[in-house]
Design brief:
Layout (H helix, E strand, L loop, with lengths): L1 H13 L3 H18 L2 H17 L3 H17 L3 H13 L27
Helix pairs in contact: 1-2, 1-3, 2-3, 3-4, 4-5
Length: 117
């Protein structure tokens, strides 16, 4: 089911339903944690970062992508970790934060985003 949630969240993001995508990803990340599927969790964190970035929430995107990169590294998936590092480089640095993000959604709960939970 968690894999299907990842696909659903991507479709929601592609259709512009960003809030729905975030909600779906939260559920999927928790499901992947329960299943102890570290690869799926890392993939969902990558998606969470993509959607957060699309929402203009750089801090959440950064947090999700860092957790995803850490998970990928722990799985010896260096190619995926390198891709995440490239995504992180596209975000503004702390000093360059956006003055007015596209949207200001409520941040996700801390649980569910830790690759080591």
């Amino acid at each position: 089911m968690a894999g299907a949630l990842k696909c659903r969240a991507r479709i929601e993001r592609d259709r512009g339903a960003l809030d729905s995508s975030i909600a779906t990803l939260r559920i999927g990340i928790r499901e992947a944690e329960v299943l102890e599927d570290k690869l799926l969790q890392a993939e969902m964190l990558r998606e969470f970062g993509e959607t957060s970035s699309a929402l203009g929430n750089s801090s959440e995107a950064r947090r999700a992508w860092r957790a995803a990169a850490e998970s990928f590294e722990g799985l010896d998936a260096r190619h995926e970790a390198a891709e995440i590092s490239a995504l992180l480089a596209t975000l503004p640095t702390t000093a360059e934060r956006e003055v007015s993000p596209k949207r200001n959604p409520s941040p996700p709960a801390d649980e569910g985003l830790s690759p080591n939970a």
